[in-house]
Amino acid sequence: MQLSLILCTLGSNAAALASHLFSELRVVTSSGSLNGIYNNTEHTVRGFIGIPYAEPPVQELRWAPPRPKSPPQSPIDASSFRSPCAQVYTYSNNSIWSVLPYNIWNSGDMSEDCLYLNIWAPSAKHRGYGGLRKAAVMMFIHGGSYSTGAASVAYYDGTNLVHNHNDIIVVTINYRLNVFGFPNAPGIDLSKQNLGLLDQVDLESRLAIEWVHNNIARFGGDPDRILLFGQSAGASSADIHAYAYPDNPLVSALALHSGTAPLLATAPDHQNWNELSTAVGCGTGTESFQCMSQVPTMKIVETRAHGSYNFYPIQDNILVFSDYAARAKMGKLARLPTLAGITEREYTAIVPLSLTSIDEKLEKAIYELGERSFNCPLRESVRIRIDQHVPIWRYVYYGNFTNLSPTPWLGAYHGGKKYRSLFLFA
């Protein structure tokens, strides 16, 4: 009613303007019609936040492969972040990850209903090349050791990147984590254990990556220019994608920040599941699976918080492989140009900020952990690609900015870069 009154008052030009604004904030996708927002005061960036790309993996769909989202009858309000995936979310106040904007905005809202993605795209008045050329797409997978994290971390907001570079679209995604994403449970077929990866890359179900490939043109994006990138576990996920889908990767390039495919992968082993299911009263073995399927989400989360349980990608030789060099030699590595690197001081991120300096013993430990966990696996990943004549660029990030490293000894730590300069690679 208010809009009608304004239009009558201001005339046909205002009506045309209002119609244009409305149309560029409404996009019809395979998940349904979306109502987005302008994500900054200049109206240069459109935000479509909280887009469902799969049915909620709840109740009977807990620990089931993801299913495509059926479009609802009414438009989807795509104006705010949806719940992060269920996780034990705690950071020490003495950690750099708590001081800077690495916190999940809506961490108290965690839920199993979390399979959503977010898109930041230039508005019509901000489009590069007069709007004639489709924008390159930067699709980001968050890290967190496959156990924590979300697309709604403040650091991952794509608004500034799109505002500063008018020919880019940024996409971030949620995917199932920890025991909900990688249960390693008795009673589940081995091919269905890596649910968090299936959320990201399952081509049969047409989920996150294929959703973006199929729908991004409707936001002004180019499906033939999608950079898939991630940090830590997100980088590992992106690298896994290159080996899992060598013939039809759907993306055109990769960027791997502090992570490669073998990171945190584990052999099929039900030990962590059995310990957790016993702790919640479900015992062990195949019978425990049906029992665990009925346990409330937060009971599982709270039980995990009081124990030490690790749930990582499982080597199923379908998505996650035990020998990546051998797979590459078989021609099973997507020939995608790849940018891959580490930070100079990965492990200072876990050193308490209360320290005023780092002694020689701790300095040596930081170096050795960084070599073992990140640099040596990266060298192997680079060697594999060079042997197969896959274009690859390797870097070490030394950036040390006071707003990111308030304590001098931090340097370039794990997670201390994310989006910097990547638009050049898109």
Compact overview of the structure:
The chain is of the alpha/beta class and 426 residues long.
Keywords, please?
single chain; about 425 residues; alpha/beta; nine-stranded mixed β-sheet; three-stranded mixed β-sheet; 13 helices; about 30% helix; globular; disordered N terminus; disordered C terminus
Write the layout of secondary structure elements.
Layout: H1 2-10, H2 12-24, E1 26-29, E2 32-35, E3 37-38, E4 45-52, E5 76-77, H3 96-99, E6 116-122, E7 135-141, H4 159-164, E8 168-173, H5 178-181, H6 195-201, H7 208-215, E9 221-231, H8 233-244, E10 253-257, H9 271-279, H10 286-292, H11 297-305, H12 324-329, E11 338-343, H13 360-387, E12 392-397
Parallel strand pairs: 2-5, 7-8, 7-9, 9-10, 10-11, 11-12
Antiparallel strand pairs: 1-2, 3-4, 4-6, 6-8
Q: How does this structure look, described?
A:
With 426 residues, this protein is of the alpha/beta class. It has helices at residues 2-10, 12-24, 96-99, 159-164, 178-181, 195-201, 208-215, 233-244, 271-279, 286-292, 297-305, 324-329, 360-387, and strands spanning 26-29, 32-35, 37-38, 45-52, 76-77, 116-122, 135-141, 168-173, 221-231, 253-257, 338-343, 392-397. The strands form two sheets. Strands 3-4-6-8-7-9-10-11-12 form a nine-stranded mixed sheet. The chain has a three-stranded mixed sheet with strand order 1-2-5. Helix 1 crosses helix 2. The relative contact order is 0.12.
